[in-house]
């Protein structure tokens, strides 16, 4: 990833993050359409869409920001440092 994420090759970490989130959302939506039994918790949230969005929107925004920042880090940090920090998150 460090090889790819340089200013000379592919400096578009926001675009990469948007693609990641779009594909994840699309595949999850397709799975829900074809196999709703894989999502048993959705039945419990009927009529509570505003409450669910109130809890899920901040989590989704934080996850998107985390992806963007981790992709940006490849431009500024060494591979050794990134591996060291990744072990700290496990």
Highlighted features:
single chain; 90 residues; 4 helices
Task: Describe the overall structure.
- With 90 residues, the protein is an all-alpha fold.
- It contains four helices and no strands.
- The chain is elongated.
Nearest-integer average pLDDT: 80
Strand content: under 5%
Calculate the terminal CA-CA distance, rounded to whole Å: 19 Å
Rg from C-alpha positions? 17 Å
Tell me the total number of β-strands: 0
Largest sheet, in brief, is: none
As residue ranges, the low-confidence spans are none
Q: What is the SS-derived class?
A: mainly alpha
How much helicity do the residues have? Answer: over 70%
Topology as H/E string? HHHH
Report the principal-axis shape.
Answer: elongated
How many helices? The count is 4
Sum this structure up briefly:
This protein has helices at 13-34, 41-44, 49-76, 79-89. With 90 residues, it is mainly alpha-helical. The longest helix is centred in the C-terminal third of the chain and has 28 residues, at 49-76.
SSE topology:
Layout (H helix, E strand, L loop, with lengths): L12 H22 L6 H4 L4 H28 L2 H11 L1
């Amino acid at each position: 990833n460090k090889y790819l994420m340089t200013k000379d090759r592919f400096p578009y970490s926001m675009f990469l993050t948007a693609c990641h989130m779009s594909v994840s959302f699309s595949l999850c939506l397709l799975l829900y359409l074809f196999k709703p039994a894989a999502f048993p918790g959705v039945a419990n949230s009927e009529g509570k869409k505003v409450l669910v969005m109130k809890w899920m929107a901040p989590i989704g925004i934080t996850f998107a920001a985390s992806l963007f920042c981790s992709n940006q880090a490849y431009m500024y940090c060494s591979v050794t440092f990134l591996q060291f920090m990744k072990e700290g998150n496990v």
